[in-house]
Amino acid sequence: MPVLDVPPPACMRDPEIELLADSAARFFEREATPARIQKWRDEGQVEREFWRQAGEAGLLGVAIPAEYGGAGGDFRHDVALVEQVAKHGVEGFALSLHNVIILPYVLAHGTEEQKKRWLPKLCSGESVAAIAMSEPGAGSDLQAIRTTALKDGNGYRINGAKTFISNGQIADFIIVVAKTDPAAGGKGVSLLVVEADQAEGFRRGKALDKIGQDAQDTSELFFDDVWVPADNLLGDREGQGFRQLMAELPRERLIIAVGSVQTMERALETTTEYVKERQAFGQRIFDFQNTQFKLAECKAKATVAKVYVNDCVQRYVDGTLDLTTAAIAKLWVTETEWEIVDACLQLHGGYGYINDYPIARMFRNSRVQRIYGGSSEIMKLLIARSL
User: Fold this and answer.
1) CA dihedral in degrees (189, 191, 195, 199; nearest 10)?
2) Is 252 assigned a catalytic role?
């Protein structure tokens, strides 16, 4: 019996969704072995071959129409895959970034020619995606970015630096947030695609040394007079970047919450197993009232989080998920994930501080959930505006 006995939302009770989840589970069990994941941690990135394998297995672009190389599914299919990535601890494999954040930008805002040009390679795993938003001096405040993309002949010349870019070391398809009209503020922001193998002047900086997410390559990127053709402007006109970014935020923040719920479940499962086996003072750690109360509190909080996220998933599928509700999900669930993982680590005692134990890696990996995708403080600002 699952540690959280919460039924899935109605939209996820579909035999097709269940078959996809089962297929993904088998793929991860077969291909994302503990030894292979450890290799990713040691090397600081998931190798491109795994992306190609995921593409061959039909796990990339599941919500992209078949005419563009996808599986013709929808958001529910991506939710099922993101849950399996979290359940199986496939660290470093940024499926949610690729499938749920970047590909929808191209599908929703790209021209017909752009969709036919880029999406098939992204769905097959031939191309790996990244999005370059944050800069050394601009994180949540995207209007403060300094990267420019100025007209130069039949194209744009990009100059600037980006940081904290997931997939930065391996991505060859990079959506860059830049100012095509620096004097226009948010109305001068555009999204442009840099194809790394064709971009003279593009440089990858060092892979950043993080306190967690060891298998996820997070990098600095530099654009020194990088020229891209006008056809690489995402969409059919300049100045739409800020609107494009804002339109996709509810889904992006919801998918982070989906992954956080699965991490809570994993933390509770591994901790419950541990305290039922480990003994102290002549009895199982589980038999101490303090342990039972702590686990009960964690289960209660995780249950509330899962019920809320399930409701948000249903709302998104129904087309009624708003920015505030998604911000509440992102804030509540990631903060609760951190509380639960921390409590579960405490119940492991000294072993919880040892990286050989899954709970230690969950602890380090969970910390950033409250920062990326919009920090908890930004979520509070958004929620406050609704009052």
Assistant:
1) -10
2) yes
- Residue after which a domain boundary falls, among 188, 215, 239: 239
Residues 235 and 247 in one domain: no
Residue in 252, 265, 273, 335 annotated catalytic: 252
3-state secondary structure 57-103: CCCCCCCCCHHHCCCCCCHHHHHHHHHHHHHCCCCCCCHHHHHHHHH
CATH number of 57's domain = 1.10.540.10
* pLDDT tens by residue, 112-171: 999 999 999 999 999 999 999 998 877 677 777 899 999 999 999 999 999 999 999 999
| CB-based contact 317:75 (threshold 8 Å) | yes
Handedness of CA 222, 225, 227, 232 (dihedral sign): positive
Burial grade of 7 (CB within 10 A; 0-12, 13-18, 19 or more):
exposed
Helix ranges (DSSP H) in 175-288: 241-277
Look up the domain containing 280 and give its range.
243-384
The whole model's pTM is what?
0.93
CA atoms of 316 and 252, how far apart (whole Å): 11
